[in-house]
Design brief:
- This protein has 141 residues and is an all-alpha fold.
- 78% of the residues lie in helices and 0% in strands.
- It is built from two helices and no strands.
Length: 141
């Protein structure tokens, strides 16, 4: 759990995160205890699945059904959230890819503009130098 904790969160957000983590930890511990203590007797080794094994009493069967239902609801919600997250991440990846291509095009355009400006500056500088030599030649004559 500590790997998922943000390094620094200001003010009441830290308390909220700590409270949420504590609640999640408490629920997980409760589920572990429930499985370990309350329905552990329902687990049977694969070798004892013969017809001489007594059937489950109705309350034990109801408990198993309730646990299975709870697990399916929790897993279903989690899977839906994971699928939504994957979908959002894929959309974000596509957006970032498109923005990366756009930035590359912009940089390429600026590089071409910069090269054209350098060529123009060089041509102007060369022409000014020629005019200066011509002006100096006319003054000396």
């Amino acid at each position: 759990m500590n790997a998922m904790r943000p390094e620094k969160i200001e003010g009441t957000e830290t308390e909220t995160v700590d409270t949420n983590l504590a609640a999640v930890t408490e629920v997980e511990a409760g589920i572990r205890d429930f499985v370990r203590n309350d329905i552990a007797y329902l687990r049977r080794p694969a070798a004892t699945t013969t017809s001489d094994a007594p059937p489950l009493d109705p309350s034990a069967e109801a408990t198993v059904n309730n646990v299975n239902s709870l697990i399916q609801r929790v897993a279903g919600t989690s899977l839906a959230e994971i699928e939504n997250l994957i979908s959002e991440l894929e959309s974000l990846r596509d957006l970032l890819h498109a923005e990366g291509q756009r930035v590359q095009r912009e940089i390429s355009g600026y590089a071409q503009l910069s090269q054209a400006a350098m060529k123009s500056t060089r041509m102007i500088s060369d022409n000014v130098a020629q005019w200066k030599r011509a002006a100096d030649g006319l003054r000396n004559s």
